[in-house]
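P.,

For your records, the input lines for the assembly:
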Amino acid sequence: MAVVTEVRSSRASWLSGVLLLVRLGMAAVFIAAALPKIQSPDLFASDVFNYQMLPNWGVNVVAIGLPWLELVVGVCLGLGIWTRASALWMAGMMVVFMIALASATARGLDISCGCFEVGAEGGHGSLVWAVVRDVAFLVGALVLVKFHDAPSPIDLFRRAR
Amino acid sequence: MKRLAVQIFVLLAVSAGLAFAANRLRTDRIVLQADPTRYRYQDVRFVELGEAARLHEDPTTLFLDARDAESYAGRRIFGAVSFPADDIETAYAELRDFLAPDMPLVVYSKDLLLAVRAARYLNERGYDAAVLDGGWDAWHRARLPVE
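Structure tokens returned:
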């Protein structure tokens, strides 16, 4: 019985560690994606426009609002504030990004992704790679939706005290 | 479930609030009605429709039509002078004696690239040319003076 308890405890500790890494990784990804867009919303607007999916006002709304949503959910997730809601936003954004990327790829657009840098040159294959990457991020977000009670840095800090 | 929905909404509301406040504080803010293609041309100054309408009433400002001569002959912004970007050397040769470096110039076209090309050409020669955001279509749609 003691051995079983010890194995379970070790497994739980291992899982907690992995979930903490996923949480911090996803938070870092979203914050890193948001900052260049917040810095240069005009270039991001140009990137969004290149997808040819939205009317002008829609492009501008996305260019203004999306980076801040990425930043807010990234910070909340990293700190462990409203994890499930933040992760759901992330998953939703990933689905939208993948649809946009797949659509651009299907239409043969040679544009830059606008994911982590803005105003970059397009490149063949870069969108396909971005879709693959977003699938991984979607999985990360869904894992955090499922395990929203996973430890956060704040929890660890409280426990350490 | 209700709590989750509230949290989702609050995250959106906070993000939107921060986004629009930050945009408002920027000098290079994004204008909702602006043509996003203009952001590709960082080296050219743009004027919004409202400012252009105000400049149009200022007699020292000259509006230049960068569309082809045929489009210009059809309909144009009231008082605009033809400056077709597809034959820019000839257009400039005909117009240069009437231009002054301190004269505000507003260039427009149907195709943004043509207006940008014309504005760049003039700015490289020391003039003060800006591009009308939204171009001919925006001006026409707003029912501003045409002839």
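Two observations worth noting. The two ends of chain B are 60 Å apart (CA to CA). The helical segments of chain B are 2-25, 49-56, 69-74, 88-95, 112-124, 135-141.

Regards
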